[in-house]
Amino acid sequence: MQTKVYLTDEEMPRQWYNIAADLPSPLQPPLGPDGNPITPDMLAPVFPMNIIEQEVSTQRWIDIPEEVLAILSKWRPTPLHRAPALEKALGTPARIYYKNESVSPPGSHKPNTAVAQAWYNKQFGIKRITTETGAGQWGSALAFACSLLGLECKVFMVRISFDQKPFRKLMMQTWGATCVASPSTETQAGRQILAKHPNTPGSLGIAISEAIEAAVTDPTGATRYSLGSVLNHVLLHQTIIGLESKKQLEKLGEKKVDVVIGCAGGGSNFAGLAFPFVNDKIHGADIAVIPVEPTSCPTMTRGPFVYDHGDTAKMTPLLPMHSLGHDFIPPPIHAGGLRYHGMAPLVSQAIIEGLLTPRAIDQIECYEAAVLFARTEGIIPAPETSHAIAAAIQEAKKAREEGREKVILFGQSGHGLMDLSGYDNFFQGKLTNYPLPESEMGSAIRELNGLPKPKVVRSGKW
Ligand SMILES: Cc1ncc(COP(=O)(O)O)c(C=O)c1O
Predict the structure, then answer these.
(1) The pTM is what?
(2) CA of residue 413 to ligand 1 center, whole Å
(3) In what helix (H) or strand (E) does residue 38 lie, and over which residues does it extend?
(4) What is the dihedral of CA 295, 296, 298, 304, to 10 degrees?
(5) Structure confidence by residue, pLDDT tens digits, 26-50
(6) Neighbours of 255 (CB within 10 A)
(7) Protein residue closest via CA to atom 14 of ligand 1
(8) From CA 278, how far away is CA 131, in angstroms rounded?
């Protein structure tokens, strides 16, 4: 049995896939504070114009610059594996495959966009990039990319992860970046939150506010901000994952995929793997496409589709997305990269269309899945990734009950070698599930009253 497929450097995709060209109903525009659509100029202090152009593009295929391909080829194409030992342990007739993004130097899918974003910034003459990080994977990825491209990098890391994962900070430092815990005293946004909540675990929403403030207040004008997920251009850069996977499944002789699964924090690794398959679904293929989130931060499964800010201090435009409210501070689960109040507008619109079937899973079930995966297939996954594994296991068990030979593909978005404190807590029985109580959902969502409402545009085909 062939259990893994590599592609040659020549077989690496040369273009990214932009689902905005194929979504049955177009994305609604981001809005400014006055409720009117924002113009590219309004984003110019935050992002370089070449990235803004990509953000609004509806061109289906976008060329990957040669220099970006050259850096990506340090670890890409990534392998696609079959998981026979996991299949055996589950007694399932399903064939389970996973795309292994954990082989990148920082350990996850995040450098796929970090390298591209750093390159576009450099082309535009930018010298320094600021960003936020949850689990530390994104901060490490941007530090890595900036180091290879000769840019300065400053990372605001969510306090709870900063404390849980000290080695991530050292990785960033090794790649030449500076990393501080967020909220910090370095920005007005951070100071205001600390004054109100001195012991806050922090959140991605707060760290984003700090990173944007640090970029736009640089008097030299040579700093821009970079976001590791959520935005259209970030999802675009990640589609190399799904495009490679399609070629690899073909090489294995798989004619049809039944289920595609990814964990979703802001939506980028899920979309990167799934969107090329969603394109097939739009054109008639019968595929279940499942983004997975924690029950403690149930953005897609319980959050309304609204216009909301991407950050806590309301510095970003209003985006049409599923959201739990920009003030929502998720419980301190170990999957730091899934602790985000919103979901990518492209993923949100695909949910509204009925193209995706989101699922929420409890923390303990995810750790059980992660440990089974580590003990069968050998890779210790990131806590974020464990959500995709848990859903793949649920689907494989379903296939066993139905007696069906399904093909299941999931995204192995990162390794968990820097996340072992979560495993320690799991083994010591210290972990709890935090399904979000209705009362807490209500209070965060109340912040959304008074904001404009997106139209719920649905073609009704799925
Ligand atoms: C390993 C890993 N997987 C998944 C995610 C979630 O992010 P996204 O939804 O953008 O893929 C993160 C975020 O930090 C991550 O580190």
Answers:
(1) 0.97
(2) 7
(3) none
(4) 140
(5) 999 999 988 999 999 999 999 999 9
(6) 7
(7) 337
(8) 30
